Amino acid sequence: MIKPRTPPGIMELLPRDQIAFQRMLDTIRRTFEGFGFLPIETPVFELSETLLTKSGGETERQVYFVQSTGALAKSSEGGQSEGLPELALRFDLTVPLARYVAEHEHDLAFPFRRYQMQRVYRGERAQRGRFREFYQCDIDVIGKDTLSPRYDAEVPAVISAVFAALDIGEFTIQLNHRKLLRGYFEGQGIDDARQMTVLREIDKLDKRGEDAVRATLTGEDFGLSDEVAERLLAFSRVRSSGHDDALAKLDALGAGTALFEEGRDELRALLAQLRALGVPESRYALNLSIARGLDYYTGMVYETILDAHPQIGSICSGGRYDNLASHYTKSKLPGVGISIGLTRLFWQLRDAGLIATADSSVDVLVTLLDDAALPDALALSQRLRGAGLNVETQLEPRKLAKQMQYADRAGIRFVVIRGEDEIAKGVVAVKDLRRGEQFEVADDDLPRTLLVEREQWQAMR
């Protein structure tokens, strides 16, 4: 016998937890569509040459390669040339999007507004809360040649709407701008060649702390003076609380290089647009330590934190990039987007007790007391389904207590009983397992009564 085991790094859920996860997916999807984003899906695997546009990096060490049994057999027989397998599992949704847009460029309407909610795969070291297979929920707006900075402000409005709808607690969308950062670096005499390495180090402040980052910046590899390192750290400490304070903090930064001023102007415009969109000012703030470590970000960057649970880390992040698909097309395709790592977020929220096991998606269990009643039970079930209820029918008679126990364990709220006594009176007995109550309803009124009860219960929750 083979011992049944879930592979490490995989989140596998029982049905009622899967329902809770699925409802989060549905909420995110509805919100994305409410802002005019269109769905796409891409294959779970891509050509290795598409995914691995840079060889020898951290990404390549985490990629899962794909080979068919036929290809393996051919390789073992010496019939396949040495090198990487032809296919690999996608490690994010951004690289497949770049390939997708480059391939279908002439068939798409720009700006192209896409959302994508699929699994991705990374060879993470197995540890608590780190997953090798996980859902990402992404949106991106891709322009042809140019893309207005106004789209940069729409993205945090989407983030705000998503997490308000998920109702998982108060949150803050932290904002910064790469041009503001790089312009400030310029003003401190840090040349282009060193800016990205300094930026990546600043982005580690939350993980490493100021002392460690200061030591690295002034060390042999970076060679910054103590004065410059201290000014960088002071700059990164800037935070805002409220809309007007964010504007005041930007004003207080003083004059800077042309690149610095461009970033500051775009941040001011974003703040004005967020106010026009009605995003509550408690949900966004400047955080000038936010840099996002990936090199392709060129403008606005975002990270979202749950206020009461900052230890969870960023629950949604992203930013602006100048050229999404430079490896696949000569066209310039700038864009802006964000990603929600939903598997990790769900796991952490459940671990923190912020998400409860869901009720079943089945509304009603129709009981069966004896074989002779099966036609009546089937007809009743169909009538309830026709009214818009989700119904499970017991197809084998069991003791009523056993059927009640099954419904309670499965998370089904209503149990419908129609035995000889109920048929004689023209009623149906309903057991509400959530409220612990049992009542009788006229047969004709049953669908409407259950629908009203379901709506009232949902409204209370």
Describe the protein:
- The protein starts with 14 loop residues before the first helix and ends with a helix.
- With 461 residues, it is of the alpha+beta class.
- The chain is built from 18 helices and 16 strands.
- The strands form three sheets. It has an eight-stranded mixed sheet.
- The chain folds into three domains: 286 residues, BirA Bifunctional Protein, domain 2; 45 residues, no CATH class; 97 residues, Rossmann fold, CATH 3.40.50.
Question: Characteristics of this structure?
Answer:
461 residues, alpha+beta, BirA Bifunctional Protein, domain 2, Rossmann fold, 3 domains, 5-stranded mixed beta sheet, 16 strands, 19% strand, elongated
Provide the CATH architecture of the largest domain.
2-Layer Sandwich
Largest sheet: 8 strands, mixed
The parts where pLDDT drops under 50 for at least 5 residues are none
> What's the count of strands?
16
Mean pLDDT: 90
Categorize the overall geometry: elongated
Tell me the structural class.
Answer: alpha+beta
CATH topological fold name of the largest domain: BirA Bifunctional Protein, domain 2
| Spatial ordering of strands, largest sheet | 1-5-6-11-10-9-7-8
- The CATH superfamily of the largest domain turns out to be Bira Bifunctional Protein, Domain 2
The rounded distance between the terminal residues' Cα atoms is: 45 Å
Count, helices: 18
Number of domains as seen in the coordinates: 3
Gyration radius from CA atoms, angstroms: 28 Å
> Strand share of the residues?
15-25%
Highest-level CATH class of the largest domain: Alpha Beta
**Helix content range of the residues, please?**
40-55%
